[in-house]
Each structure stands twice: as C-alpha cells, then as structure tokens.
Design brief:
The complex is a heterodimer of chains A (156) and B (415). With 156 residues, chain A is of the alpha+beta class. Chain A has helices spanning 6-12, 56-67, 96-109, 131-142, 149-152, and strands at 18-24, 30-34, 46-50, 71-77, 80-92, 117-128. In chain A, strands 2-1-4-5-6-3 form a six-stranded antiparallel sheet. The mean pLDDT of chain B is 94. The chains are: A alpha+beta (156), B alpha/beta (415).
Chain lengths: 156, 415
C-alpha cells in the first residue's frame, strides 16, 4: 500500500472533518453512514470503528470483504474534500489497533462507549474532490464552455 | 467409505460462490490441521502473542513453547486449531514472513492471518498464589473457564469416543492430578475474571465447561452446585444481573436448569448432543447414553428453552463423527439428511444445533479415522444456516468472534 497524500492524512486525523463511508447492499443499493472515528493510524490504510455487528453498514462491509467488493469514503473539511475508493482488508476484533480505537471511542464518548470491531480499508484510488481543485481540472480539460456567463462577466 | 472425489479449497470457492473463501478455509484449517514453521513458532513466542503454559489439551511441558491463542482470519473469523506434531497427515503451514503470518498450502500463499494476542492477566497470580493463566484461557473475545478438570465418563471407559479434553492421549487417562488441580477454587475464578475485565474491550463473553461429574444424591447435583457457586463468584464482577455467558454442560433436569438460571447470571445453556443418529449416539457417547440417554438429552435442551428463551439454548454436534467406522454412515447424503433433520427438529423447538469439525485425534477411540471431504462441511453449514434462518435463529453466543469452532455460525453474519 502506498502513502496517502499529506493533506488527506491531516484531514483524516482532524476530528472536525466530516467522514462518510459508503457501502452497497446485496442488490447494489448505496448506504451512507457518518463515521466520526474514521482516521488513519499508519498513513496508508483507513480505519474506523463499527459500533454493532448487526448494522446495515457492517453487513455491507462483511459482504464486501467476503466477496471482494469496493467501498467508498468521503472526508471533508470546509472546501477541502477527498474521496477514497478501496476494499475492506481486515475486520479487527482484538489487538493493538482495536485497543487504540476503543480507547479513543471512550475518550470521545465516555467510559461506557463500546465498539464491536474495527474495519481496515485498503485504498485503491484517492481523488481530490475539493471544488477549487475540481474547477481547475475542469477548466484545464474543457475550457470555459460549461461556466455560466455571469460568473465570467467583468464586475461593475 | 465416501464415494466422492475430494475437491480442495480453490475448487469449492468456485463451486459455492455464495460461501466466502474465509469460511471454507476455516473449515479446512480445522479439518486438515495446521503446522507452524520455526519462524512462526518463534514469532508466536513473542510477549505479544505468548500463550499459557498449558491448556485443556496439553500437559505442562517446559521443553515446549506455549502455543498462542486462536488464529484470526482477515474478516475476523476465529479459528480454533492447534499445530500438534504428528497429528495431521496433510496440514496447512503457518509461516511468518516480513512481520506477518500467512497460511500456506503446498507452497502457495492462501491468505494472511493473525493470532489472538496474549491477555494482560496471563503471568499474574491470584491472592492464593495460583497462576491466573491456569484458571482461564483467552480467545479473541471470550474467556474460557474449566472449573472441574476431570471427566467421570472415563471411570467406566464411557468417555465420548472422539474426545481429547483434559486427556493424556498417549497414556489413555485423564490429566487431573499431576498436571492439573481437579477442582478450581471459585475465589481464584472470581479474581481471574476481575483481572481479565480490566483490559478494555477484550472480552464479550465468558464460557464455562468441564469434565462430567454425575455424582450427587440426585445425579449431577454436585456438578450443578459447583457451577452455581462458580457463576455466582463470576457474577460478583458485574453490575448487571445477567452477563453474556454460556455453560456447555451435560443434560440436566428442568429443575437443575432452572436453578442455574435463577441463582446465577448465566445467559445461555448448551447440552451437547454430539451426534444425532440414535444408534451412533449410543455407540459414540456411551457415557451420555448411560446418564440418561439420547431422549433425555434432547428433552433437556428443549425444556431449557422455556427457561433461557428461544435462541439461548444450543447443542453442538461433532460434524463428521457420524461417518466413523464401523457403524457410521457411508454416504454424504445420509449424513446431511440426518443432520438437517436434527437442525430442523431443534430449530422448531428454539434450540440451535451447531456444528464443529471432527478431528480424529490419535489416541481417542476414533483416532486416525478418515474425515469426510471438505465439500461435506460446506454443504452442511449452508443447510444448517438456511434452516435456522427460516426459524429466526442466530447464534450470537457462538458466533465468529466468540467461539471459533463453528463454520455455520460464521456464515450467519449477513443475517
């Protein structure tokens, strides 16, 4: 696995960032959940805690690790946004990373907070989805033909 | 015996795309067994993994490195399998390369695995000076306690013919005495559990089982009293009336089961039927047949549902032992029919009929016999899960993270 961009690592490690995990059910229907615990511990993989074994999201992730399906993650803060596509690599029920994540859950949510397990996602594709970055790319690729003219007009 | 050409892991993954590879692999790891490379033996002796000095299946042996806890596959599936030398004809190899463990088969990497880490209570002593790692053993999310380490079925040579529990298989005798204290003091259990619970998120269930003791004015009464005393000692560690727990024990009377429920915080009861067929039960489990027969065991499980509730009563069977020579089934279809009949019957009555893979340990009454092919196990777990799903049952007490012995409950994670 390769190193994630530094800007993304900083975003992942910021508790103020919005973090969403997208998975699909058996029929391919998308399912989105926010994951406040989502972060990176090694700068290469994404980890997040799962609260309950029986959630729709968790079942989708189990299906993904069993049958080699992808999941999608979005991390956003202000106008900086990244999308990560990858595959569930591990589901941890004990060990060092599990311990780190349960300790963090209890720091954030109190001593009674609990987690069922920790998903480790191996990224396969990282996209900078920040509007400014995408606008620059779009302009470079397609020119101004898709802009509204009022955006281009000379200010009075 | 079984007229089926054996299909291996890869072929069955392709043939049964609805069954995940990890679960088929688990079944085969248990069926064929495992062997450690020297690198793995050394790596698992690291303080992070190092296991207890002895287990329920081994005498204390200073010349031998302790074995680590159970293996864990990438999806979290726990696998109970021990790399016992000389036991397995064709085991998978577990190798350690560049800081990671891998399952290897005939030189090919099958997948990455890990082992359950050493719990923090190992190496500590109770106030009576007893090593805590001799009181309780750790699975990834489960604490195993064996309060009585002697099976009296052995007294009359009526031990279950597949069983290797607390047994010196070479000498064909129980280990209690020189290697183990036969009875574990409830206060040592209380203190060990108390210490184990200090580790955040380490356990989500306590499991009790032991050798069978049918003594007492009413048969099994001494054993029931002992379990109640132990469960009450464990219960002092919790602020809730009930705590996630399971007792794997003989079939008791309804009154005895009710005492266990009313006088302790126990949440699940599991009298193991071991093998469903009437004649095979009589032959393979002659001790259970004597105390007091198959119908009694079945009725005990059903009666227990009234007390513990639907889905909180289990009965395990040793899948594959039904093929044992000379009385066992000779066809896969016969064996599947028998086990599906059992699963249906128990499920209809709120009991979970759960499979575990038979390992014909050398030295047991059925040692060295041929196991059924891997495909039998794949078909078996699929069928069991379908039946239980129909009856709204799920094996939360014995699932992928708590036990490690049951491919069928592993498959229920999508339910």
């Amino acid at each position: 696995m390769s190193r994630l961009p530094e800007e993304l690592v900083e975003l992942l490690n910021d508790p103020a960032s919005g973090k969403v995990v997208g998975s699909t059910d058996e029929d391919g229907t998308p399912h989105l959940v926010t994951k406040g615990s989502l972060t990176t511990l090694d700068g290469e993989t994404i980890v997040f805690a799962e609260g309950f074994e029986s959630t729709q999201s968790n079942r989708n992730l189990i299906r993904s690790i069993w049958f080699n399906r992808k999941v999608s993650i979005n991390v956003t803060r202000g106008t900086t946004s990244y999308q990560i596509k990858g595959r569930p690599h591990k589901y941890l029920i004990t060990g060092r990373i599990f311990r780190t994540m349960i300790d963090r859950a209890r720091e954030r949510r109190g001593p009674q907070a609990d987690i069922a397990g920790v998903w480790v996602i191996a990224p396969e594709e990282v996209r900078n989805e920040s509007p400014g970055y995408r606008a620059g790319l779009a302009a470079a690729k397609r020119g101004h033909f898709h802009n509204h003219l009022d955006v281009l007009r000379e200010p009075e | 015996m079984i007229a089926t050409k054996e299909a291996g892991l890869a072929a069955l993954v392709e043939k049964y795309p609805e069954v995940p590879k990890s679960i088929i692999l688990k079944l085969d790891l248990q069926r064929r067994g495992i062997a450690f490379t020297e690198a793995t033996a050394e790596a698992t002796n690291d303080p992070y993994y190092r296991g207890p000095e002895q287990t329920a299946f081994s005498a204390k042996d200073p010349s031998r490195r302790p074995l680590p806890g159970p293996m864990i596959l990438r999806d979290g599936t726990t696998v109970i399998s021990s790399p016992v030398q000389g036991q397995f004809a064709d085991p998978y190899t577990i190798d350690f390369v560049d800081g990671r463990f891998f399952v290897i088969d005939r030189g090919e990497i099958i997948d990455e695995v890990d082992f359950s880490p050493r719990p923090e209570f190992y190496g500590k002593l109770t106030s009576r000076g007893v090593p805590m790692e001799s009181i309780a053993w750790s699975r990834p999310q489960r604490l195993d306690i064996y309060p009585y380490r002697y099976c009296h079925y052995w007294d009359t040579r009526d031990q279950c013919k597949f069983c290797a529990f607390f047994t010196d298989l070479k000498q064909q005798k129980q280990l209690a005495g020189a290697s183990y204290a036969r009875v574990v003091h409830p206060e040592d259990i209380y203190e060990t559990v108390r210490e184990a619970l200090k580790e955040p998120g380490r356990y989500s269930q306590i499991n009790l089982t032991a050798g069978t003791d049918y003594s007492g004015e009413v048969p099994f009464e001494k054993e029931v009293d002992r379990y109640i005393e132990v469960l009450q000692a464990i219960g002092r560690n919790f602020k809730t009336r009930r705590f996630p727990s399971q007792l794997i024990a003989p079939a008791y009377t309804k009154r005895q089961v009710k005492r266990l429920y009313d006088e302790t915080g126990l949440s699940s009861y599991c009298p193991d039927i071991e093998v469903w067929d009437k004649e095979l039960f009589r032959w393979i489990c002659s001790g259970k047949e004597k105390w007091f027969g198959r119908d009694y065991w079945i009725q005990s499980a059903i009666d227990a549902v009234e007390i513990f509730g639907k889905g909180n009563v289990y009965t395990n069977f040793v899948a594959g032992v039904e093929f044992s020579k000379p009385h066992g089934f000779t066809s896969i279809e016969q064996a599947l029919d028998s086990n599906f009949e059992a699963c249906e019957f128990f499920a209809r009555n709120g009991v979970i009929y759960l499979s575990l893979v038979w390992v014909p340990w050398k030295g047991t009454g059925l040692g060295g016999q041929q196991q059924p092919p891997l495909e039998y196990y794949v078909r078996l777990i699929k069928g069991l899960v379908e039946i239980r799903r129909h009856y709204g049952l799920a094996s939360d007490n014995d699932d992928f993270k708590h036990c490690g012995n049951h491919g069928d409950s592993d498959l229920e994670r999508l339910n």
